[in-house]
Design a protein that fits this description.
EC number: 2.7.7.18
Number of helices: 9
Protein name: Probable nicotinate-nucleotide adenylyltransferase
Helix content: 25-40%
Radius of gyration: 16 Å
Strand content: 15-25%
Oligomer: single chain
Keywords: ATP-binding, NAD, Nucleotide-binding, Nucleotidyltransferase, Pyridine nucleotide biosynthesis, Transferase
Family: Belongs to the NadD family.
Bound molecules: NADP nicotinamide-adenine-dinucleotide phosphate
CATH superfamily: HUPs
Largest sheet: 6 strands, parallel
CATH architecture: 3-Layer(aba) Sandwich
Function: Catalyzes the reversible adenylation of nicotinate mononucleotide (NaMN) to nicotinic acid adenine dinucleotide (NaAD).
Structural class: alpha/beta
Shape: globular
CATH class: Alpha Beta
Mean pLDDT: 93
Length: 201
């Protein structure tokens, strides 16, 4: 049964190119540790600061996200950034989600620690701490230097090391190109979807 108090929403942001077990384990561990009510996966539409032809079309990344999250009862997925025209800004996403979930929703934006390291350069960065807290998920060996993060963000940023994030989307894409197996690195349905649609070849 849900406890009293504001709804605690984890917002899992990323390119998810493709989504893999590391993302799913990170979301599950954080859901548990931060007593979240739900973790909403939000694949980026056109990621800001990125020109990369290795990024699969948004529709495919969206489908893979849905396939990967469907069987977990406290996971869900939103196409809001995929549907939005122009660049995907986290600030706009959070305001839009607060309209849907309620203005008093407590938001925890979860993403990779290397992305969080750049947070002060994000769109409307100065306003972000008013609308969300941040959870930086780091892979083994990656050290986020909290001292380098502006104190304004440091106060509302939590760091969680997730051993399963040894899996990376970059490595999965390389393995596909080299014809190597990707079995067990991502959910079987996502693996099949990638081959059926000839992604990352
Ligand atoms: P990205 O290229 O997908 O990922 C950067 C790094 O973080 C990669 O090492 C990635 O590993 C890891 N990562 C990504 N999402 C993760 C997640 N949810 N949990 C754990 N690790 C994750 O990410 P990005 O394009 O830099 O952006 C990340 C998020 O921040 C997106 O939601 C994006 O919209 C937001 N962002 C917003 C702004 C803005 O508002 N101006 C600017 C930059 C980023 P894998 O490759 O294995 O996924």
């Amino acid at each position: 049964m849900r406890k009293k108090g504001p709804f605690r929403l984890g917002i899992m942001g990323g390119t998810f190119n493709p989504i893999h077990q590391g993302h799913l384990v990170a979301a599950e561990v954080i859901w548990d540790e931060f007593k979240l009510d739900e973790v909403l996966f939000v694949p980026s539409g056109r990621p800001p600061h990125k020109e990369n032809d290795e990024i699969a079309p948004p529709e495919h990344r969206w489908m893979m996200t849905v396939l990967a999250t469907a069987t977990n009862e406290h996971f869900s997925a939103s196409p809001i950034e995929i549907k939005r025209k122009g660049e995907s800004y986290t600030y706009d996403t959070i305001l839009e989600l607060k309209k849907i979930y309620g203005e008093d929703t407590e938001c925890f934006f979860i993403t990779g620690a290397d992305a969080i390291a750049e947070i002060s350069t994000w769109h409307k960065a100065e306003n972000l701490p008013e609308v969300t807290k941040f959870i930086a998920a780091s892979r083994p060996g990656y050290k986020l230097d909290m001292e380098k993060i502006h104190p304004r963000f440091r106060k509302c940023t939590y760091l969680v090391e997730v051993p399963a994030l040894a899996i990376s989307s970059t490595e999965i894409r390389k393995r596909i190109k080299r014809g190597q197996t990707i079995k067990y690195l991502l959910p079987e349905a996502v693996e099949k979807y990638i081959y059926k649609n000839h992604l990352y070849q």
